[in-house]
Amino acid sequence: MTIIRKHIETFEEAIALAFRETQLEGMKPEVSRLFAAMLDTISRQEVKKLVTSAVRNQYGKDAEWDISNWWQVAVPLPRYEARGLPSLIVETRAYSVASVEVTRGWGRRSWHIALVEPLGKPRMTLLPLCFLQALLDGNEDRYRIVGKDGRWTLREVAGLKQPLRLHDDFVNQLHHVFRLEPVADWLDDFGSRGHSLVPLVVGSLLGLMHRGDSASVPIEQQAYSREMLIDIITGMGYGVARAQRVLERAEPELRAGMTLEEATRIVLKHISEEV
Amino acid sequence: MRKFTQQEIREIIRTAQLLAPQFTGDQYQKLVQMQQEMADSEFIEAAWGVYQLQQEYGIPCSETPGKYVQLLKDTAEAESRLSRLKEQRKIEGEKLDQMVKAVRQVKEERHRGEKELELFRRQSEDEKKRLKEELEHTMQEAQVNRDDVAIAIKLKAEVESHRLDLELTLGLFEEFAGDEDATRHLAEAVAEYGSQLEAREVLRKQNEALRVEEEKRQENLAELRTECQRDQEVLSQLRTDLAEQERLRRFWQRFKGTSQILEYLARWDQVIPMRCNWFFCGARFLVDQGPSSFRTKLTCPCCGLGLVYYDDEAFTTLGLSYRTPIKIELGE
Questions:
Q1: Most CB within 10 Å of its CB: which of A35, B153, B258, B275?
Q2: What is the DSSP letter of A85?
Q3: Measured between CB atoms, which of A198, A208, A216 is closest to B19?
């Protein structure tokens, strides 16, 4: 809980305080609004409880207070995950920002404070890049809907163990965002953290766009991946643990962009050394 | 549009190649170029044109330039035809306007004619009605009815059948109707003038001559009256002049002896009538004070006493302002 001696009146001011609390740079309020749909709404009673505890700790038991306004602010932190299905994983932390007027019991003077308090555990939102690509192309309907829970929709995405669960408002807003700006600019809205993900996400989306053409390329000429190499080693009758050890030994010689054939030769060499 | 650094571009291509191994830097550059061209509205327009050609006319992309040239020619020809048609339409429109104006004018004239005709019809009806009323009124005044009129028409026809003039016949009736001795008068007239008609003509001429003579006499009389009036005015003027001369003569006779005194007094700046109030003196005299300020303290030139005062009686008699010095001014 952070107490700031300031009178806030708007949601924008609340978002700015939450961003300051997480020490994020360059994040725009629009992304907070976008991911707010992914959060569970907290009740006024919960906020009241948090404020009571904070005010009594700070100003004593005789302090009186009144909540002028309060907001629930989402702070999304994106990261890129290439293992398995390339995805964008957004860890959304919820913050309660309350504008409170405090009066000491024995005095007439009152003042305003802003309380910023993180709420519960962060929510993880998985956004497979193939789904983002479908959103960009406007054909997200190609993913079969396997469930509906109020405003939450479950879609079946090949490569994911669990169905993709997203809030309808979030999907609609994301669709609207992608009509107005490219993915790279949207990622820049997340600040420095999003900016660093731009090449990976854009590259993955381009790869997904052109993956259909790769059928004509022989598999040995395609770029290797860790999963492919493990599949090859386990296919030879070795266990997964051994395959991982072989990969650890071969790691210094492997480099990004190497074909599967080249990588396989290196791995085979290390298997023979392992044996 | 965001610009990537070289390092970012390399990373993008490398990441893309993980999913699509055949993806190359050239493809990336093409994509970027395409994105830039998509931002260019002219490029989009051209591409859309090619697409439309293919969709609507089934013209493949390779034949587009030739078709484009053909379409340009067709467009130019259509535009020239359009301009000709526009010109023709303009001429036809002007003709139509003129025709509409002419039709409108004819309609107006017709409307005006109808109005005039209606007015004329009303006027003729009014006139007919008025004439009828007038005829009725005249007949009432003349105390005749339609039977009398019919008789008169018949009488006129009868008279004309005997080669006589109705006016003349009526004149003769008028002349002889009230005359008890008409036969004798007629015989005398015939004896003197040959016929009654000639006698009437001679008398008419004599009457005319007398009338002319009477007019001339009246004119002479008017001239004489005007002359008489003028002479009377001259006489009146002469009488007035004579009276004025008589008055002047009497005035001269009366004041010619005192004119020297008046001339002398007129040279004074101011004349003040004064009087001695001593009981045994009572002298009256005129004083000219001269340029110095006026002094009322004077001595009598007769008795030498200082009981001299203004001669108020003189002021009153002469009708002058009370005790104001007099300046005598003579005429030319």
A1: A35
A2: S
A3: A208
Q: Closest Cα to residue B286, out of B264, B258, B306, B259?
A: B264
Q: How many CB atoms lie within 10 A of CB A48?
A: 14
A214 in contact with B, Cβ within 8 Å: yes
Distance between CA atoms of residues A127 and A147, nearest Å: 17
Residue A186 lies in a domain: no
**Stated pTM of the model:** 0.48
Total domains in the fold of chain A:
2
List C-alpha distances in Å: B122 to B116, B118, B127, B130, B294.
10, 6, 8, 12, 101
Structure-token pair, residue B275: 């009087």
Nearest residue to B318 (alpha-carbon basis) of B284, B295, B293: B284
Kindly state whether residues A162 and A219 are assigned to the same domain. no
Average pLDDT over residues B295-299: 69
Q: A256 contacts in B (CB within 8 Å)?
A: 14, 18
Tell me: do A127 and A40 sit in the same domain.
yes
Q: What's the pLDDT band for B235 if we cut at 50, 70, 90?
A: very high
Interface contact B19-A204, CB threshold 8 A:
yes
Q: Are residues A214 and A173 both part of a single domain? A: no
Strand order in the sheet with B272-276: B284-287, B272-276, B308-310
In a domain, A235, yes or no: yes
- The pLDDT, as a whole number, for residue A213 is 57
Is the pLDDT at B295 greater than 70? The verdict is no
Examine the domain organization and report whether A173 and A224 are in the same domain: no
A26 and A138 both lie in a single domain: yes
Share the mean pLDDT of chain B.
86
Query: In terms of residue numbers, what domain contains A265?
Result: 210-274
- Asked whether A20 and A75 are in contact (CB, 8 A), the reply is no
**Model pLDDT for residues B140-182, shown as the tens digit of each residue:** 887 777 787 788 888 888 888 877 777 877 777 776 676 677 7
Q: Rounded to 5 degrees, what are φ and ψ at A95? A: -125, 140
pLDDT of residue A218: 66
Across the interface, whether the CB atoms of A256 and B14 are under 8 A apart is answered: yes
**A184 is a domain residue:** no
Q: Is the same domain home to A171 and A240?
A: no
**Quick one: which of A92, A105, A117 has its CA closest to A4?**
A117
Q: What is the ipTM of this complex?
A: 0.72
Q: Any idea which residue has 């990441």 for tokens? A: B15
Distance between CA atoms of residues B13 and B31, nearest Å = 12
Residue A274: band (very low, low, confident or very high) from pLDDT cuts 50, 70, 90: low
A127: in domain: yes
